[in-house]
Amino acid sequence: MCQTLTRAGFDIASASTGQATGLRVGREQDVVIVSWVPADELDPAGRTDASYEGIRTALRRALQEILTQAGYAVEVDRTGGHVRVSRVHRVPADD
Is the pTM of this model over 0.85? Predict the structure, then answer.
């Protein structure tokens, strides 16, 4: 999954790195959680109420499209602001 996102142009950091910004990937039981942490450069004023909902919505849609086309099942968590990804086992079509 990380290779798919890298090929699509995303820079990825492990969620276990702590303070990393950008697209973060972590594991939770049998799914992968993909989230986004904005960099300080997006809000030099340091507003505590900056939610970046427009960016988050666009990112979730992009992740859903890219990963679904690559054969993953993607569940969007609008409350948490992340996506949950699992592998779909496709049955080959009869030709």
Answer: no
**Residue 90: which of 75, 76, 74, 72 has the closest Cα?**
72
- 8 A C-beta contact, residue 84 and residue 77: yes
Looking at residue 75, its pLDDT comes to: 93
Half-sphere exposure of 33 (CA within 13 A, CB side): 15
- Asked if residues 20 and 14 have their Cβ atoms less than 8 Å apart, the reply is yes
Q: Six-digit token pair at 53?
A: 């909902």
According to DSSP, the β-strands at 12-14 and 82-87 are unpaired
Residue recorded with tokens 């820079």 = 11
**CA 89/CA 41 separation, integer angstroms:** 40
